[in-house]
C-alpha cells in the first residue's frame, strides 16, 4: 500500500437557499432543548451522565475533581493543559458534535474499515474520548472488540457495555498499553496536542500490522465560497483571537495540510483524505447540509463563550465580560443566513 499521490479535490460548493430579508436570521433552540432524532440507520443519541464508569479501576479522588474558572469547570488532573470546559454544558455540546459526525458520515462511526458494523475488530483506542459516546456506541456495534477510551477529564457515564472501559490519562505522556490496537480513533484533538509528530509516532508504534488510524477534525476558521463573510467579521475576529491565544499557550491549531506529510514520515501507508463541510446555520439549500448547519449552530452558538473563555482570559488577559461581548458579536453572524459560512472537516 502507498500514499495516493493525487491531490485531494475540495468538496463541492454548497448551494444557498434563497432567503427573504425578514427571515435572514436563524434562531436555534437552546442546547438543553435539542432532542434525539432518528435519522437514517442510527438513532442520534445523547448521554448526559457525568461520572466515570464504575467498572474501571479505582483512581485517586483528585483525578476525578474539577476546578472552577470564570463560571465554568475544567479538568484538575494536569490542570490548565486543556482549554475546553468539562461541565454539563460542555458534555451536551460534545454529544452534539458526535451527532454532527454521524450525520456527516451517513450514520457510521467513522470512515476506516473497522467502523463498519460488519467488520470484526480486536482492540480499539478512542483518543480524547470526552463523554465516551463514540466508544460506547462502537462497543455496542462490535461486541467482539475491546474498546478503551482515554481522556484528561472523567466525563464518561456510569453504565457502559462490558467490552468498554475508560482511562483518565494524558495522551502526550509515554504510552504504557500492554497490547497493540487494531484501530485508533482520534476526533477533535487539534488545539490539544502540542507535538503532533510524537503523537502520530506513538499511534504507529501501538498499532498492529495492518491496523488503522483515523483522524477526524475541523479547520479553525470559517470560510465562504461566495464572499458573504463580512470584511470586518466579528466571527473571524473571535476565532482569530482564540487561534492566537492557543499558539501562545503552546497548543496551536494545526492546519490539515500538515498531517499528510507527518503521517508519511512516521511510516503510515495508504493515507486517504476526505473533506466535508459544516455550515454555520441552516442557510444551505440541500437537506443534508441544512441539517448539518442546524446541528453545527447548536454546537457553536450557545457554547461560543465557553470555547473562547479559557484561551482568551489565560493567554490574552481579556476579562470575562470582554469574552462574553466577543462571543455575543460573533453569535450574530453565526445566526445570519445571508452569511454562507462553513467549516472544513
Commentary on this structure:
This protein has one domain: Rossmann fold, CATH 3.40.50.150. The protein is 31% helix and 16% strand. The protein contains 9 helices and 12 strands. The strands form 4 sheets. A 5-stranded parallel β-sheet has the order 7-6-5-8-9. It has a 3-stranded antiparallel β-sheet with strand order 10-12-11. A two-stranded antiparallel ribbon has the order 1-2. α5 crosses α8 and α5 crosses α9. The longest helix is centred in the N-terminal third of the chain and has 17 residues. The radius of gyration is 20 Å and the shape is globular.
Tags for this model:
about 350 residues; alpha/beta; Rossmann fold; five-stranded parallel sheet; three-stranded antiparallel sheet; 9 helices; globular; disordered N terminus
Topology summary:
Elements: E1 38-39, E2 42-43, H1 61-64, E3 66-69, E4 72-75, H2 88-104, E5 123-127, H3 133-141, E6 146-151, E7 164-168, E8 181-187, H4 196-205, E9 207-216, E10 223-224, H5 234-249, H6 257-266, E11 277-279, H7 287-300, H8 304-315, H9 320-335, E12 341-344
Parallel strand pairs: 5-6, 5-8, 6-7, 8-9
Antiparallel strand pairs: 1-2, 3-4, 10-12, 11-12
Helix pairs in contact: 2-7, 4-6, 5-8, 5-9, 8-9
Family: Belongs to the methyltransferase superfamily. LaeA methyltransferase family.
Pfam families: Methyltransf_23
Organism: Colletotrichum orchidophilum
